[in-house]
Amino acid sequence: MEYKEFTVQQLVDGLRAASFSSRELTSYYLERIHALDGQVHAFLALDAEGALARADQADQALSDWRAGKLDAVPALLGLPIAVKDVLCVDGFPCTCGSRILENFKPPFNATAVQRLLDAGVVIVGKTNTDEFAMGSSTENSAYGATHNPWNLAHVPGGSSGGSAAAVAARMVPVALGTDTGGSVRQPASYCGVTGIKPTYGRVSRYGLIAYGSSLDTAGVLARCAQDAETLLRIMAGFDERDATTSDVPVFEPSWQGSVDLKGLRIGLPMEYFIEGIQPQVEQAVKQAVSLMEQHGARVVQVSLPHTKYALPVYYLIAPAEASANLARFDGVRYGLRVPQEELIAMYAGTRGKGFGAEVKRRIMLGTYALSAGYYDAYYGQAQKVRTLIKQDFEKAFELVDMIAAPIAPTTAFKLGEHTDDPLAMYLEDVFTLPANLAGVPGLAFPVGFDDANLPIGMQLMGAQFSEQALFRAAAAYQALSDWHQRYPDGVKA
Ligand code: GLN
Fold first, then answer.
1. Residue 318 falls within a domain, yes or no?
2. Which residues contact 168 (CB under 8 A, 6 or more apart)?
3. Disulfide-capable partner of 184 in 98, 179, 415, 450 (CB 3.0 to 4.6 Å)?
């Protein structure tokens, strides 16, 4: 077996047992990145030297521990990971895929990142993203698109497309992403990997550069559910630097309980199996659910009647919040500045040059929705419908333990296919937006391939703070299937 076939737990155990060193492991992944990333373009920044230095420190601590000089070592000591370029990591640039932050180096770590560093991870690089996480294909990055490792002519999904592609091509064992409207789950689905979008408030947003503050979540892209869970449990929990984090205790590992599916009530929402969905996507999702049914789950139909409003509601609320959040990028404190005599001219010059077309579109949409005279009709109304969407989920979770649904209507589309048609791009998000609006967790994992050999994903959504149950169900499915073990060998070194 090669390292790329190992789970996080196997890697951590191997490091502890001195079967291999963190330097060997980190070098192995750096070599894969050098061999493959010219074609995939998953990374915006790499720090090979820094990563190897940290790997050496980890190896030293591991050898001290083996010699009895240390009582314990942190949980993930020596494990290489990558981080989406909207999460601040001290020592790396944080561009958010935007020209406006091209030279921005944050002097601090996001809380989620800090907790993983405290657990001993080795950060090898920052991954590509749609500009400020606005997009569904990673084509909105100012630094060039990422390609899907399963077929380089296709998008990896977005906005965490860099992290999804990096894990799919086994350039890192695991990577961090963010999900505001689907940006962990949809790229996970397009790239055939597992991704968790946690409950809103489960993971601190401190150091996650804000897009839509009431929707943003930090999550994980991984090879399997158990790997995603291992990282999430470390990232999660109350943080005094983010007043929206919850003090609900972090869940215990799901594999400590029973791993069978007996008695699990799974709901299939009829609004998610609609006209326009690619038949093979629907088929694969239904087959996955029926496999779970054969192993003891009970499947019932449920209804989330306000689903059809999720798209317009999201595309009012997210741009409205974005227009406020992005006001801080004005050339005064950090990032790009286009010098001008007049202050207003400097703002306009900086923002005009620094932001790309999609970001400008969102700022205009959001500013309009928030302007006096339109606020009640658009933003206010959208907030009311958001509550109805949330209530749909609450009612459904009185009947079922979790909901199974497709993630996107189709498999990965071709690069350039939707770039001239923002609405077609927004339609990609119909099945992922509701979970963000309701603040509930969603776990994406592979359930098959279409005729073109592109991965198909499914999501399990649960009530707020039900991540443990989602991980348990997905792990049970992954024990019965091997989709998650496949990786693209089309991208060759
Ligand atoms: N595609 C959605 C958008 O463009 C979601 C992006 C995200 O989750 N960050 O807003």
1. no
2. 148, 149, 150, 156, 191, 192, 193, 487, 488
3. 179
What span, in angstroms and rounded, lies between the C-alpha atoms of 416 and 421? 10
- Of 68, 140, 137, which is closest to residue 356 (Cα–Cα)? 140
User: Ligand 1 test: best mutation among 138, 180, 184, 215, most atoms within 8 Å of CB?
Assistant: 180
Strands 122-127 and 43-46, sheet pairing: antiparallel
**CA-to-CA distance for 234 and 168, rounded, in angstroms?**
22
Enumerate the β-bridge partners of residue 442: 197, 461
Q: Is 290 a catalytic residue?
A: no
Q: How many helices (H) and strands (E) does the chain have?
A: 15, 11
Q: Is there a domain that residue 259 lies in? A: yes
From 48, 142, 132, 68, select the one nearest 96 (Cα to Cα): 132
Distance CA 70, CA 266 (A): 46
pLDDT digits (tens, 9 = 90+) for 31-76: 999 999 999 999 999 999 999 999 999 999 999 999 999 999 999 9
Which residues are CB-neighbours of 279 under 8 A, at least 6 positions away?
Answer: none
Q: What pLDDT does residue 258 have?
A: 67
> Cβ neighbours of residue 338 under 8 Å, at least 6 residues apart?
331, 346, 349, 350, 352, 353, 354
Report the CATH number at residue 214. 3.90.1300.10
Q: With a 6 A CB cut-off, is 179 part of the ligand 1 pocket? A: yes
Asked if 82 contacts 160 with a C-beta cutoff of 8 angstroms, the reply is no
Q: Pick the atom of ligand 1 nearest to 425's CA.
A: 1
> Number of folded domains in the chain?
1
CA distance 126 to 361: 26
Say if 179 falls within a structural domain. yes
Q: Residue 276: which domain range? A: 3-305+389-485
Q: Is residue 9 part of a domain?
A: yes
Closest CA to 195 of 169, 177, 165, 220: 220
Does 27 qualify as catalytic in the annotation? no
Sequence-distant (6+) residues with CB within 8 A of 370 are: 320, 323, 324, 379
pLDDT at 463: 98
- pTM of this prediction exceeds 0.85: yes
How far, in Å, CA of 125 to CA of 137, rounded?
20
Q: Tell me which residue has tokens 């990374």.
A: 43
If one residue of 159, 315, 316, 359 were mutated to test the ligand 1 pocket, choosing by the most ligand atoms within 8 A of its CB, it would be 159
C-alpha–C-alpha distance, residues 92 and 473, integer Å: 36
